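for the writeup, i need someone to sanity check this before i put it in the appendix. the sequnce is what the collaborator sent (i think, or maybe the updated version? ugh). structure was predicted straight from it, no edits. if anything looks off just tell me and ill rerun, i have time this weekend
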Amino acid sequence: MDASRIYTKIINNMKTILITAIGSMSAEYVIRQFSKSNKVVGCDIYPLHWHFESKLCNKTYQVPLATDDNYIKVLLEICRNEDIDFIVPLTDLEIDILNQNRLLFAKNKVTLCMPSEKTLKIARDKLALYNFFKDDAKVSVIKTVDKIQKTDEISFPMIAKPYNGRSSQGLFTIQNQKDIFFKNTKKGMSLPLIV
């Protein structure tokens, strides 16, 4: 089901929605929008009294980190206890973990409101994303390379980061050709990098 159909279904019918990471930047807006005509259950890794947003939810739960072995089990338990129809994950890490467990949630009749597996595979790989959009006239892309053969192909300084990094993790500035290998090794990262 595409995102617009999911959104329409949610808005037109009273459903129970689990919103993760309610302490994140976008949480207040997401909670307020969905709670206009739905029951909203929120969860977060931190104590719920730390978050103003928990007061906007009909019910809240503290959950383990998405990387914890019990994360999926706990979410499924919440889904069963609260009769959850939809999960709206608000962080990349949660989306990645939920993506690996799509079938499990589908079997429990819970819809994950997030991009398809195919879209996530492209979006999580910066070089694949660049290649997907580089010939699209409607999308401006930053020149991206994975292997620098000649220094005349690029100009310095430039930014380099792991092809699958998120936020600014692993990001660094390259001043010259030697920096590419020196900084990569110094940061303890392994290739491939994109620049």
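The first helix runs from residue 3 to 12. The mean pLDDT is 85.
thx in advance!!
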